[in-house]
Amino acid sequence: MGMAGNTFGKLFRVTTAGVSHGPGYLCIIDGCPAGLELSVEDLLPDLRRRRPGQSLLTTQRDEADIPEIWSGVFEGRTDGTPIGLLFRNADQRSTDYSDIREKYRPGHADYTFDAKYGFRDYRGGGRSSARETVCRVAAGAIAKKLLVRAGIRVVGYVKQVGPVVADIPDPTVITLEHVEATPVRCPIPETAQQMIALIDMVRKDRDSIGGICELVATGVPPGLGEPVFDKLKADLGKAMLSLPAVLGFEYGAGFAVATARGSANNDVFVPAATPRATSGVNLQTETNRHGGMLGGISSGMPIVCRVAIKPTSSIPRAQRTVTRTGEPTEILVKGRHDPCLLPRFVPMGEAMMALVLIDHLLRAKVSRL
Amino acid sequence: MGMAGNTFGKLFRVTTAGVSHGPGYLCIIDGCPAGLELSVEDLLPDLRRRRPGQSLLTTQRDEADIPEIWSGVFEGRTDGTPIGLLFRNADQRSTDYSDIREKYRPGHADYTFDAKYGFRDYRGGGRSSARETVCRVAAGAIAKKLLVRAGIRVVGYVKQVGPVVADIPDPTVITLEHVEATPVRCPIPETAQQMIALIDMVRKDRDSIGGICELVATGVPPGLGEPVFDKLKADLGKAMLSLPAVLGFEYGAGFAVATARGSANNDVFVPAATPRATSGVNLQTETNRHGGMLGGISSGMPIVCRVAIKPTSSIPRAQRTVTRTGEPTEILVKGRHDPCLLPRFVPMGEAMMALVLIDHLLRAKVSRL
Amino acid sequence: MGMAGNTFGKLFRVTTAGVSHGPGYLCIIDGCPAGLELSVEDLLPDLRRRRPGQSLLTTQRDEADIPEIWSGVFEGRTDGTPIGLLFRNADQRSTDYSDIREKYRPGHADYTFDAKYGFRDYRGGGRSSARETVCRVAAGAIAKKLLVRAGIRVVGYVKQVGPVVADIPDPTVITLEHVEATPVRCPIPETAQQMIALIDMVRKDRDSIGGICELVATGVPPGLGEPVFDKLKADLGKAMLSLPAVLGFEYGAGFAVATARGSANNDVFVPAATPRATSGVNLQTETNRHGGMLGGISSGMPIVCRVAIKPTSSIPRAQRTVTRTGEPTEILVKGRHDPCLLPRFVPMGEAMMALVLIDHLLRAKVSRL
Amino acid sequence: MGMAGNTFGKLFRVTTAGVSHGPGYLCIIDGCPAGLELSVEDLLPDLRRRRPGQSLLTTQRDEADIPEIWSGVFEGRTDGTPIGLLFRNADQRSTDYSDIREKYRPGHADYTFDAKYGFRDYRGGGRSSARETVCRVAAGAIAKKLLVRAGIRVVGYVKQVGPVVADIPDPTVITLEHVEATPVRCPIPETAQQMIALIDMVRKDRDSIGGICELVATGVPPGLGEPVFDKLKADLGKAMLSLPAVLGFEYGAGFAVATARGSANNDVFVPAATPRATSGVNLQTETNRHGGMLGGISSGMPIVCRVAIKPTSSIPRAQRTVTRTGEPTEILVKGRHDPCLLPRFVPMGEAMMALVLIDHLLRAKVSRL
Asked: Which of A331, C339, D63, D81 could pair covalently with A127 via S-S, beta carbons 3.0-4.6 A apart?
């Protein structure tokens, strides 16, 4: 799987290379079944959602984010060979980043990278830049297309920004249209306006703000996930925590289980309201505090999880830090940075959820005679 | 890595087999460096901490939990060959579980297992039983021994049971002795008593209660973890979420970042208070809201994370459910079950943390010339 | 996949632990689909074929070689959980091996093991003992059972012992019955007698002799194998070369291609003699110099390969060597050893071939929509 | 490791994508330690040796074969992040290949690819083209550079073309200069001339001819390789057999062991002629029929192996075949093809040997305390 951790997935595998201020990114997707209709156009919608500069809420960095497909697609269909994608880095204003060569930016990987390798590419985030997620979002778009064929849909949205929380009692009714209705990607219009106002205020205050993204997968058949180490919840957790700025992951009732009693927390089984296509017994749970996963295996109920995202570390304020020689100093991080990462996180979170689900959907093909 | 997910780790790999009501468990640990002094005695302390029947707080099931080492150790030292462990299942009261053959227990993997494979070992939890963690705790004990050689210590404790929360401003001062001072494994004596009283009350009420476990690793050098998919936080998250009953994972400030501002959340770098042995610049952060990991790589600060654990699903009360044919019914789950999983979770969580850290410590050996 | 290399396969994975003079061997088979009827009886025939002491041609060491199935089978069928097997070491005459503690046996791994790990289990071959193949043969028996369901049969036989070569123009007509008709496992009776006579002579001469095993798989559908690194021929080669005493592997025309012209070596395509069940065009090749694999992918023609096996290194003669301190000395290797490894190699080679084929058969399930 | 088999190696991992008639190839090398001086110039010599059109002995196809390094190198040194390479396909004469859309070329993967995926990229070899080895040779050049730092050198040469065999009693004296002295890459000048004459004759005869490549690694310390499945010989065998046109692999005495007696085949241990730097006992073997590997682990003696390569399947003659609909027909394969693959195979074989050795050299770093 790669000791250096540049590959994700077992059957549907994504390997990436590239840094934010080099020529660009390479992405190899291995294990996509042959026969899927695919073109660059399939990748663009999610890439646009991830793209910086969509609104004042996000960084103004200008990147084309249009991939080149170098292999894996022949006459409009995947042909079983690895899908090779290229993303060129268009807007390399390296001079913006000259200061960070000598000073460690608080909240960034500058110091830990130096500690790990002895030196680092100091032009921007280097390998730790969130620009790498352009590869994940493209791979996720392919995964989503495969999932839709199986009746599975993945939707994410901004659940919370600072203290502003969206009240969404039934996550399964949220559609992509609801999410994309506002630039903040919160599907409740009034709450979205409050979030936008808050982010705008924070931005003017030369600060940043955190939040929570909720992700939902519907149509997931029961039986996905492995019972021991590769529980579906474990793979989803790893997927989300592999994204930059994520400090927490929970599903279903999440951290609220800490204060719950078993008698109240257990979701009782009842006959299914409407017959389901999946083989086996026709049942569902009355509630969904288990977030669609029991024993790490999907139950057929919607999979619901939440991800905590920290406020952007790069803020346009002087911050205390030390130099590479250990001297106390101050740093003013230049460049354009999102005051709130949440809106652009949504497609990244969806992509990672889709990558986990397609991997387990493929595994399910070999788990029974 | 195993599509069916019975292997954990890349360089230090644990593969397990076995079910709760078969002859026992097999555990193969591959990749342990040769030359480590090792005997069964090294594994027993943590196995005893995981063992059921330690107190009224935990299930009274009687299991020996003493492993046999079949290979990998020669003349008292690991010899580079895979360590083969055997755990026999001593106490198999299969009759206790006859009812669950036909009825799905709420909160358990019974239904999802059937959905996945078409049938299941209905004697107890089968492969989904927490009994499997006996292998992980043994493997974790070996990992801990390797970590101690590198100056790394892993300690876990019960941070919260229901509404009772332990106030531990500095997690790094907690020692194993503090943790083991009470059967509930909360290192603050007064809080421990409140937790014990609460669990006792819940047990008498034929119910169960959830909680939060906090895990701390000290002495971790900066530079462990990979920058992209195998971030240290991601591997820790997967490790914890691969354990039964875990619904959430967070590190450092965790979900609290949702309401935080960047200016307050960033941990500024300052010169280190005391020189550190690690190569490179001598620094630390003033605070530790980043939980010891920046960009997914250890910063040299203590690694602190928390895990949310649900109330035991098996409670001695009748619960509504359906049969394997979809008929509504009730089930009264028999057997002896912990009213609160937290005390026995502590060694499991420590083991998984140790397995992640040793894997990345070994990887660090090959990441530089 | 395990850096220390104790796991074989990707989708159908075999992990082993154990040494020749410890308590026994553990074998975990992960990825066997659920639903296969399986019992210990299914494993015994091939284990008996591998077993020492079958005849004067093979070592007289007495081992039960009857596995215990600890998990993975429930009510007579595989249940999707890992299959855990145990083999106890019955006959541990450690005293036979005391001399090799200080002296390196020529042709054995004694010295290389010391060089690798700094010390070794000097009781017999330790981890390098061919006794480990008991796990592979058991796993191979399960693989064979799965293959038979898909119409694929694997047969091996002794093609050559010393200068005695069996003339088998059409390998596909050889059956298990032909092979098992003589203890030397050469399906041509007269040649078998010559081989037996030769081995007997060599044994009386306190020497050993090498040979060639030919392995054939029929009923393999076209399309198994991956086009680049995991070519079917590459995985077969690795499988065979991972067995003890193997010094060469070839398939189809093999090393004879060195002197061949393209015009004579190419196998031309012709319409199939009899319609085949496989989808797609109905063709075959007129000849089979390609050994059933083109571009590393099965062509639907029989897969035919050959393996060169050295004469047993342990011979009942004094041999020159050095001690662990580098002093010249002589060693007389005690114990009972096969004068010719070929007859017992046959089930080992078949097992490895079956493991490769089942792995690729499972992969084929996920290679197309 | 990738079910679809587009990744090679465990610690030093090479993943490739691309086809012969698309835009080009992507190659991601993951796990190269940080700190190695590296530039495009380091890759060019071996790429030139692999390059078509070097002489009349090889195809005249014109390709630049100059890679672009997109990541993994910063300020002249590897930085621990994955090395991303790009190779553009310069010379795409697709029209040369139009005929093969409907007719299966004998000896090629056309039919097996169709059988596997249901369709294929019919422009040239597609994913099965030997053009993919451009990635391997580049990765191998990096591996060689790492090996040289450890005192290990890899040299390959043409041992045999048709019946012309080079007599090289001591492979360890052959240097790169000897090999490159003639375009056929046979280090014995007179034999080289005979081979050249033979290839020229075969070419004029519109035919092709096979041969044998011998590969040697010197300076390999004892202790590389894993004792069970990942034996060094097994990984070398897989590496070589993953290359196009390879039908056989042997090391040391190879297939000649079939007729050997143990008393003659065993290499006896003797004190080392000259002290060696490696730790442990100072010994060597008197002969090297074991090809530098015992029990699958390097012995410190030179590693010597041989690879059998078939005559080029594409010959400028009409050959019988069938169409995609199963109709008998003839095909005249157009394009320019090497009449003998051996000269260009040498750098490919060296690259694969280097990739295996660096992988095991890195593993050795974590096998002991």
From this structure: D81
Alpha carbon distances (Å) from D98 to D59, D113, D123, D332, D335: 19, 17, 7, 11, 11
Question: Would you state the CATH architecture of domain A7-261+273-364?
Answer: 4-Layer Sandwich (3.60)
- Cα(B157)–Cα(B58) distance, integer angstroms: 16
Residue A335: its pLDDT value, please? 76
3-state SS class at D198: helix
Residues in chain D, pLDDT under 50: none
* pTM of this structure: 0.97
Lowest mean pLDDT among A317-331, C327-341, D151-165, D264-278: D264-278
Domain C7-364 has CATH 3.60.150.10: yes
Q: Is residue B313 less than 8 Å (CB to CB) from chain A?
A: yes
How far out from the chain centre does Cα A174 lie?
18
The DSSP element (H or E) to which B196 belongs, if any, is helix B189-204
The answer to whether the beta carbons of residues B43 and B72 sit under 8 Å apart is no
Could you tell me the pLDDT band of residue A4, with boundaries at 50, 70 and 90? Answer: confident
Contact A26, A369 (CB under 8 A): no
- Please state, in angstroms and rounded to a whole number, the distance separating the CA atoms of residues C219 and C152: 4
B residues 293..312 contacting C (CB < 8 A): none
Rounded distance between C-alpha atoms, residue D175 and residue A67, angstroms: 45
pLDDT by residue (tens digit) across C249-268? 999 999 999 999 999 999 99
The first and second tokens of residue A306, run together, are: 């939440």
Crossing angle (nearest 10°) for helices D342-364 and D40-50? 140
Quote the minimal CA–CA distance from B75 to chain A in Å.
Answer: 31
Cα gap A239→B336, rounded to integer Å: 35
Q: Where are the domains of chain D?
A: 7-364
DSSP type of residue A361: H
Q: What angle do CA A28, A31, A37 make, to 5 degrees?
A: 90
pLDDT tens across B221-279, in order?
999 999 999 999 999 999 999 999 999 999 999 999 999 999 999 999 999 877 665 55
CB neighbours of D230 closer than 8 A, spacing ≥ 6?
A: C2, C4, C5, C242, D10, D296
Q: What angle do CA B103, A224, A148 make, to 5 degrees?
A: 125
pLDDT of residue D276: 61
User: Largest alpha-carbon pair distance within chain D?
Assistant: 67
Beta partners for residue A28, in sequence order: A15, A84
Do the chains contact at B17 and C77, CB–CB below 8 Å? Answer: no
Q: Which fold has domain B8-364?
A: Chorismate synthase, AroC fold (3.60.150)
Q: Give the helix/strand (H/E) hosting C266.
A: none
Contact A8, B8 (CB under 8 A): no
Closest partner residue to D121 (CB to CB) among A4, A15, A79 is A79
pLDDT (0 to 100) of residue A334 = 79
Check CB contact under 8 Å for A247 and B259.
no
Q: Looking at mean pLDDT, say which of A138-142, A323-327, B331-335 comes out highest.
A: A138-142
Task: Please compute the mean of the pLDDT values over residues A185-190 and round it to a whole number.
Answer: 98
Please list, residue by residue across D309-330, b when 16 or more beta carbons sit within 10 angstroms of its beta carbon and e when fewer do: bbbbbbbbbebebbbbeeeeee
Kindly state whether A149 is in contact with chain C, defined as any CB-CB distance less than 8 angstroms.
yes
Segment 117-136 of chain A within 8 Å of chain D by CB: 117-121, 126-127
Which of A37-46, C90-99, D58-67 shows the lowest mean pLDDT across its residues?
C90-99
List residues bridging with C309 in a β-sheet: C211, C246
Q: CA-CA distance, D137 to D140, in Å (whole number)?
A: 5
| Per-residue pLDDT at B163 | 98
* pLDDT: which is higher, C333 or A144: A144
Within its chain, how far is the Cα of D111 from the centroid?
A: 24
The CB density around residue B264, as the number of other CB atoms within 10 Å, is: 11
If one counts every other C-beta atom within 10 angstroms of the C-beta of residue C352, the result is 32
